[in-house]
């Protein structure tokens, strides 16, 4: 019996491949029932960090505790308590959705009926008798998550579960992830979609070059950035000269479609635009988690 405490404790883990420091002193904790996101650009060390936590890779140094136990060396006692969905999902050939789940469940001694219950959770009950290769991309992702949940684990690891999905399939999967957390599960996941991390996660860690650059609730990280608000008005509504002289206006950009006013006092600027009758179709854009991400990791594209 473990003492009460965090579901996951990661302490100064490091992993190098030759001269490349893939993970360089990462530390964080995840509370029971928390939805925790690992965010970062390509090559930031997210997947390696996740694989170390899952017990799939041995760290060069540092330690990980999952539910009070170490996942490395491979810990059979922890396996039934963890569900893992990797970036690339593999299924047994020629099996239906129901048969896939029953097969995965049987590896943990789960009854066939209990395993199939996961189909309802991920919204695939009507696809129970459909072979995996005939499912859509979004349905395959949901089946992959159902397989990770077939044995009812306490902690679920998801590595970019919404990658390559269309917007409708992504939002459908959000409902599945919310339903999983509502069942009391602890979720740790990686993603490149900052909008969904901002909506789904209780806390996130922004990782770059193998290090945690910032960590906290998305809303807290956004407030901490203290970024300017952008008031966007339709091109021709006001001139750049007028916009530059508005109260609160700090910087004005004319992109040919809109006049974008950066301001530290949006209320004052919007009030002035209203007095000029220039608020028709105006938009107000506040900082988002994406702004935090770009501020911390830079804007240069990475392969």
Write structural notes for this entry.
With 303 residues, the chain is an alpha/beta fold. The chain folds into two domains: 8-223, Rossmann fold (3-Layer(aba) Sandwich), CATH 3.40.50; 228-286, Alpha-Beta Plaits (2-Layer Sandwich). The protein is 32% helix and 26% strand. It contains ten helices and 13 strands. The protein has helices at residues 46-54, 97-106, 112-121, 137-149, 167-182, 194-200, 218-225, 240-244, 266-275, 289-297, and strands spanning 8-17, 20-30, 35-39, 61-66, 82-85, 155-159, 186-191, 203-208, 211-216, 229-234, 249-254, 258-263, 283-285. The strands form three sheets. It has a six-stranded mixed β-sheet with strand order 5-6-7-3-8-9, with helices on both faces. The two termini are 45 Å apart. The mean pLDDT is 91. Belongs to the ABC transporter superfamily.
Break the fold down into its secondary structure elements and pairings.
Blueprint: E1 8-17, E2 20-30, E3 35-39, H1 46-54, E4 61-66, E5 82-85, H2 97-106, H3 112-121, H4 137-149, E6 155-159, H5 167-182, E7 186-191, H6 194-200, E8 203-208, E9 211-216, H7 218-225, E10 229-234, H8 240-244, E11 249-254, E12 258-263, H9 266-275, E13 283-285, H10 289-297
Parallel strand pairs: 3-7, 3-8, 5-6, 6-7
Antiparallel strand pairs: 1-2, 1-4, 8-9, 10-12, 10-13, 11-12
The N- to C-terminal Cα distance equals 45 Å
What is the name of the CATH superfamily of the largest domain?
Answer: P-loop containing nucleotide triphosphate hydrolases
Q: DSSP strand (E) fraction? A: 25-35%
Estimate the global geometry from the Cα principal axes: globular
Q: Which class of the largest domain in CATH terms?
A: Alpha Beta
Any idea what the CATH architecture of the largest domain is? 3-Layer(aba) Sandwich
Low-pLDDT windows of residues: none
Widest sheet: strand order? Answer: 5-6-7-3-8-9
> Structural class of the secondary elements?
alpha/beta
Number of helices: 10
As for the number of domains, it is 2
Largest sheet: 6 strands, mixed
User: What name does CATH use for the topology of the largest domain?
Assistant: Rossmann fold
Number of strand elements: 13
The value of Rg in angstroms is 23 Å
Helix content: 25-40%
- Average pLDDT, to the nearest integer? 91
In N-to-C order, the SSE pattern is: EEEHEEHHHEHEHEEHEHEEHEH
